[in-house]
Amino acid sequence: MKHLLALITALSLSLGLSPAQADESTQNVVLINTFTVPARKLDEAIAMWDAAREFLHTQPGYISTKLHQSLSGDAQYQLINVAQWETPEAYQAATALMRETANLPRIEGVVPGPALYNVIRD
């Protein structure tokens, strides 16, 4: 498998593509971040997400992100963010820099639950 990944990387670089563009399923990672949000804090939580997105979309390795809101007011997670990053390292570096420099507010009662995933079935 390592040899196959090395071959994909070499081929993609020779074609002028990033490894992520050459084979999304083995290179990209998916961030799924669930948010427990008190009803009275929903607008604040969405504004905080907007500010985080504005910072993160400028970082190396960022691909995309979408915020989802539950249709049910009693759902455990009112907001769920699904994002794609080229590598776990890119995500970790970007979020570490965001924590250090972006000065995002902490919102009482909002509890994030971020985790990185690989796509294993399409």
Architecture overview:
By secondary structure, this protein is α+β, with helices and mostly antiparallel strands. The chain has one domain (23-117): Alpha-Beta Plaits. The protein has 5 helices and 4 strands; from the N terminus they run H-H-H-E-H-E-E-H-E. A 4-stranded antiparallel beta sheet has the order 2-3-1-4. The radius of gyration is 17 Å and the shape is globular. Residues 1-25 have low confidence and may be disordered. It comes from Phaeobacter inhibens. Keywords: Signal. Residues 29-95 form the ABM domain. This is Antibiotic biosynthesis monooxygenase-like protein. Residues 1-22 form the signal peptide.
Which keywords apply here?
single chain, 122 residues, alpha+beta, Alpha-Beta Plaits, four-stranded antiparallel sheet, 4 strands, 25% strand, globular, ABM_dom, Antibiotic biosynthesis monooxygenase-like protein
